[in-house]
Amino acid sequence: MNIEAARAFAVEAARLASNTRGHNVRVLDVAGISPVTDFFVLITGTSARQMRSVAEEIAEYGREHDFKPLSISGQEGANWVLVDCVDVIIHIFTQESRVYFDLDNLWGDATVVEWETPAKVK
């Protein structure tokens, strides 16, 4: 898969998560520093049900756009849901799990990808 397509998918996954009440959404470019993927999307969920909904919505979008998930893990639990789309891995955490696993700091060398549409200047 090409890196620009993976970046576009990661950005859209972040937007979908934000639109589904995901919080503290970050996209990290880990290409070149991770041996397994190019992008992480980190999301904090508000409840187990909401986290599953975000995962399902992103997985459906991935299936429709050539990023079919290889696997989805953690849907039966309530702390961390992982959607592995190979070039993009989506992590959906509870607030407590996000702090505990601290992937934001663990991958601190990664480039943060701007995904939010900038506000229009009038």
Topology, element by element:
Blueprint: H1 3-19, E1 23-29, E2 39-44, H2 48-64, E3 71-73, E4 80-84, E5 88-93, H3 95-101, H4 103-106, E6 111-113
Parallel strand pairs: 2-5
Antiparallel strand pairs: 1-2, 1-6, 3-4, 4-5
Could you please describe the fold and organization of this structure?
This protein is α+β, with helices and mostly antiparallel strands. It has a single domain, classed as Beta Polymerase, domain 2 (2-Layer Sandwich). Helices cover 37% and strands 25% of the residues. It contains four helices and six strands. It has helices at 3-19, 48-64, 95-101, 103-106; strands spanning 23-29, 39-44, 71-73, 80-84, 88-93, 111-113. Strand 3 (71-73) and strand 4 (80-84) form a beta hairpin. Helix 1 (3-19) packs antiparallel against helix 2. The longest helix is centred in the first third of the chain and has 17 residues, at 3-19. The relative contact order is 0.22. The model has no long low-confidence stretch (mean pLDDT 91).
